[in-house]
Automatic annotation (TrEMBL):
Keywords: Methyltransferase, RNA-binding, Transferase. Residues 46-157 form the THUMP domain. This is RNA methyltransferase. SMART domains: THUMP. It comes from Flagellimonas aquimarina. Pfam families: RlmL_1st, THUMP, UPF0020. PANTHER family: RIBOSOMAL RNA LARGE SUBUNIT METHYLTRANSFERASE K/L, RIBOSOMAL RNA LARGE SUBUNIT METHYLTRANSFERASE K_L. One of its GO terms (molecular function) is rRNA (guanine-N7-)-methyltransferase activity. InterPro entries: RlmKL-like_Mtase, RlmKL-like_Mtase_CS, RlmL_1st, SAM-dependent_MTases_sf, THUMP_dom.
Length: 388
């Protein structure tokens, strides 16, 4: 039996509960929510599976050592004490990232530099050779988390952030982060049991993430590499088994996923990304202006979209958001419509009362994911028929 160890999955603000649920569903042990992170137990195979399958994780960290530190000598000595050559070879490049809230040190670059010196000196002492630093695309990423006097050294098993799924080759002016898109879809209750529409689809991120959720396709199936592949203990055969087992759990999808955008460049890029994600049999993209459309299906419709905020894309906010409300009211009965915006003032112009508001962050912009329930006929008529 492979040995279990503690891991940490990093995520976005507000996504901790859905990431914890994902981890439990995957089979993680001892799942605990933190702030922008969830910790859990698993073996090396589970570390591979977490990187492959989690939709709302940005990084999977493997903590190595935790110690108290009161001065720079203690930092150096504790980092030097780690048997670094056991973890990776001297011909690999590495980078050290430091996140800190400490009274001992006031410069994260200095902490990274001191730790780098200790690591390199250890390699020289043991191997007579040293690995080189690469800030651009290192083979090995090491994370230092310094809080007050407690220092945690972790190996970053993911490398590049897990939002870089590998399917998005074309983007528009304001693309939404893939992890953010997946998390918003899960928060909206999307499970693939209805028809889906993104009426302002941009480069197609919501469509693709919705398709992968609907078909239970692993989130990072299109990604080619992870940092754990450069570790000394990487088991390529085990990794391949986990990929195959995860693909065997995909399911059929019997509804429609539709994307609209009025910009020809957007629909072209979205189609390229959908093709790249191998989801073109499930997703249809059309060049349409949402404000001139009607509901494209007969049954219930699940809608999620990211309208322009007026930040990077210039719009007349009052007019634009007013049209969103009018279009939903007049042309989209039987629809649960969710939208995310950082322009909280703009929501006043929609002219509809949201049934839910969830705080989220799009990058550094504090945003709201809001739900508008559009009934079949008026609300009054619905209640009348309910009481007959």
């Amino acid at each position: 039996m492979a040995e279990n160890f503690r891991m940490l999955a990093k995520t976005l603000y507000g996504f901790e509960p859905i990431l914890a649920k994902e981890l439990r569903n995957l089979g993680a042990g001892n799942v605990e929510e933190g702030v922008r992170n969830v910790s859990f137990d698993g073996d090396i195979g589970f570390l591979y599976k977490a990187n492959l399958c989690l939709r709302t994780a940005l990084k999977i960290m493997k903590p190595m050592e935790r110690f108290k530190v009161f001065n720079e000598k203690e930092l150096y000595d504790n980092v030097y004490a780690i048997d670094w050559p056991d973890y990776f070879d001297h011909d690999k490049t590495f980078a050290i990232d430091t996140i800190m809230n400490s009274e001992v040190f006031n410069n994260s670059m200095y902490v990274s530099q001191k730790a780098k010196d200790a690591l390199v000196d250890k390699f020289r002492a043991v191997k007579r050779q040293r690995p080189n630093v690469s800030t651009q695309d290192p083979d090995i990423r090491i994370n230092i988390h310094l809080y007050k006097n407690t220092c945690t050294i972790s190996l970053d098993s993911s490398g590049n952030s897990l939002h870089q799924r590998g399917y998005r080759i074309s983007t528009n002016i304001a693309p939404i982060n893939e992890v953010l898109a997946a998390g918003l879809l899960l928060l909206s209750g999307w499970d693939g049991q209805l028809d889906f529409l993104d009426p302002m689809c941009g480069s197609g991120t919501f469509l693709i993430e919705a398709g992968m959720i609907a078909c239970n396709i692993p989130a990072n199936i299109n990604r080619e590499s992870y940092a754990f592949m450069q570790w000394n203990d990487y088991d390529a055969e085990l990794h391949e088994k986990i990929v195959t087992a995860s693909l065997n759990k995909t399911r059929e999808f019997h509804h429609k996923i539709i994307g609209y955008d009025k910009a020809p460049s957007a629909t072209r890029k979205a189609q390229e990304n959908v093709d790249n994600a191998n989801l073109s049999e499930y997703i249809t993209i059309e060049r349409k202006d949402f404000f001139r459309t009607e509901k494209p299906v007969d049954g219930k419709l699940h809608m999620v979209f990211n309208p322009p905020y007026g930040e990077r894309l210039q719009i007349d906010v009052e007019d634009f958001y007013g049209k969103i409300g009018d279009t939903l009211k007049q042309n989209y009965p039987g629809t649960n419509a969710w939208l995310i915006t950082s322009n909280l003032e703009a929501l006043k112009y929609v002219g509809l009362r949201p049934s839910r508001k969830i705080k989220a962050f799009n990058g550094k912009l504090e945003s709201r994911l809001v739900k508008y329930e559009m009934y079949e006929g008026s609300k009054k008529a619905k209640h009348k028929t309910d009481t007959i």
